[in-house]
TrEMBL record:
<dbReference type="Pfam" id="PF02843">
    <property type="entry name" value="GARS_C"/>
</dbReference>
<keyword id="KW-0658">Purine biosynthesis</keyword>
<comment type="similarity">
    <text>Belongs to the GARS family.</text>
</comment>
<dbReference type="InterPro" id="IPR013815">
    <property type="entry name" value="ATP_grasp_subdomain_1"/>
</dbReference>
<dbReference type="InterPro" id="IPR020562">
    <property type="entry name" value="PRibGlycinamide_synth_N"/>
</dbReference>
<dbReference type="InterPro" id="IPR016185">
    <property type="entry name" value="PreATP-grasp_dom_sf"/>
</dbReference>
<dbReference type="InterPro" id="IPR037123">
    <property type="entry name" value="PRibGlycinamide_synth_C_sf"/>
</dbReference>
<dbReference type="InterPro" id="IPR011761">
    <property type="entry name" value="ATP-grasp"/>
</dbReference>
<keyword id="KW-0547">Nucleotide-binding</keyword>
<protein>
    <recommendedName>
        <fullName>Phosphoribosylamine--glycine ligase</fullName>
        <ecNumber>6.3.4.13</ecNumber>
    </recommendedName>
</protein>
<keyword id="KW-0067">ATP-binding</keyword>
<dbReference type="InterPro" id="IPR020561">
    <property type="entry name" value="PRibGlycinamid_synth_ATP-grasp"/>
</dbReference>
<feature type="domain" description="ATP-grasp">
    <location>
        <begin position="117"/>
        <end position="324"/>
    </location>
</feature>
<dbReference type="Pfam" id="PF02844">
    <property type="entry name" value="GARS_N"/>
</dbReference>
<dbReference type="InterPro" id="IPR000115">
    <property type="entry name" value="PRibGlycinamide_synth"/>
</dbReference>
<dbReference type="GO" id="GO:0004637">
    <property type="term" value="F:phosphoribosylamine-glycine ligase activity"/>
</dbReference>
<dbReference type="InterPro" id="IPR020560">
    <property type="entry name" value="PRibGlycinamide_synth_C-dom"/>
</dbReference>
Length: 429
């Protein structure tokens, strides 16, 4: 089955990832109309923003029916974890409209780190040794910490907006942090805490599109999570990304595909988990061997802002392959050029920050693609509306060239409290 030659698409989300998707979808020869719910000031240029909360499934359904939507593309994890795929599949009025994203059970790969680790162990996918604990067996958790070597890795089991992972150097600090997590630091996301051994290496993000049987490996990226230069300070939702990644060469990627991607897709099928969407595999390169740190069930942010621009083929055709099968027939074309994304954030982020600052200079960005993350438009002006404000992506012959263009563009953009890391990609040079 295929959808019509000319399609209406509803894209859910409001961040930089969604602007990148909207930007790419808008280039498709197959697109009729694109709607983004709720979108931001940047997505409004690519399609029509609609004021709908992505987790208000009843409102999403009504919009889909009223606007002849042929496909729903889900950007963020929350609607997936809360079951939008199942909601559509089980409602006879909209069950014929594909949702790009996994079922509720499939979304548990991100929604529950304990579920994900169990899946990896069961399907012999390389990952760090671990155990899971709740408040009831906190003493056992502390005893388990004593069997590990520093540094210590503690992960909130549930969704914590990308901030639920703590890596600490001291055993006593690890025990104290464990108590704070089990006592509500991350809300119910921390009711269960996964403690795992620390893997020493360098990280990268591998993105896979799958129809549940076949898969296509998208461009690899590396992101930068901490707020400060030199990977210092607290974790954020992401401060930048580069693609491709020099150390993710053909030999390494062959290992990734054979030991991780193939067993993951086959494992989903063996477990009868309905999965038609994207898998984000966070990897650690440990002396040339890949280990899974985590799964996400959607594209990453800000990696998407570096990955999608490198894809030259039609993304709506990719969606069709995901939704209806036959992804093995899709020809993925990727530019060899390097893409570098630098994120501009609000002063104070990831802590408290002000909103409503006017952004100036957005018209002078010819050498870059400026993806909006936390922005809003009013009276012909654009204002900050979030912690991560803009993701500036540029192409170059190498990392130095691409990053340099992004920094040059950022220098011409101004708003009160603007902050960005000045070392994106430097660790790869």
């Amino acid at each position: 089955m295929k959808y019509p030659e000319s399609v209406n698409i509803l894209l859910l989300g409001s961040g930089g990832r969604e602007h990148a998707f909207a930007w790419k979808i808008a280039q498709s020869k197959r697109l009729a109309r694109l709607y983004i719910a709720p979108g931001n000031a940047g997505t409004a240029v690519c399609g029509t923003n609609v004021d709908i909360n992505p987790v208000n499934f009843a409102a999403v359904k009504q919009f889909v029916l009223s606007n002849n939507i042929n496909m729903v593309v889900v950007g963020p994890e929350e609607p997936l974890v809360k079951g939008i795929y199942d909601f559509f599949k089980e409602d006879h009025q909209i069950s014929n409209i594909p949702v790009i994203g996994p079922s509720t059970v499939g979304a548990r790969l991100e929604g529950s780190k304990d579920f994900a680790k169990d899946f990896m162990i069961r399907h012999r996918i390389p990952t760090a040794a671990y155990r899971s604990f709740t408040k009831k067996n906190a003493d056992e958790a502390k005893a388990f910490l004593e069997t590990l070597k520093a540094p210590y890795v503690l992960k909130a089991d549930g969704l914590a907006a990308g901030k639920g992972v703590l890596i600490v150097d001291s055993l006593e600090t690890a025990k104290a942090e464990l108590d704070t997590m089990l006592n509500g630091r991350f809300g119910h996301a921390g009711d269960t805490v996964v403690i795992e051994e620390f893997l020493s290496g360098i990280e990268c993000s591998v993105f896979v599109a799958t129809d549940g049987k076949n898969f296509s490996v998208l461009p690899v990226a590396k992101d930068y999570k901490r707020i400060g230069v030199g990977d210092t300070g607290p974790n954020t939702g992401g401060m930048g990304a580069v693609s491709p990644v020099p150390f993710a060469d053909a030999k390494f990627m062959d290992k990734v595909v054979s030991t991780i991607v193939e067993p993951t897709v086959k494992g989903l099928s063996a477990d009868k988990i309905d999965y038609k969407g994207f898998i984000f595999i966070g990897l650690m390169n440990v002396q040339g061997d890949p280990y899974v740190i985590e799964y996400n069930v959607r594209m990453g942010d800000p990696e998407t802002e570096a990955v999608l621009p490198r894809i030259e083929s039609d993304i709506v055709e990719l969606f069709q392959g995901i939704a209806y099968g036959g992804l093995d027939q899709y020809e993925l074309k990727i530019t060899p050029a390097t893409a570098a994304t630098v994120v501009c954030v609000s002063g104070g982020y990831p802590g408290d920050y002000a909103k409503g600052m006017e952004i100036k200079g957005l018209g002078n960005t010819a050498d870059s693609i400026v993806f909006h993350a936390g922005t809003t438009a009013k009276g012909g002006k654009t204002f900050t509306a979030g912690g991560r404000v803009l993701a500036v992506t540029s192409f170059g012959d190498n990392i130095t060239d691409a990053v340099g263009k992004s920094y040059k563009t950022i220098e011409g953009i101004g708003y009160e409290g603007k902050y960005y890391r000045t070392d994106i990609g430097k660790d790869l040079l």
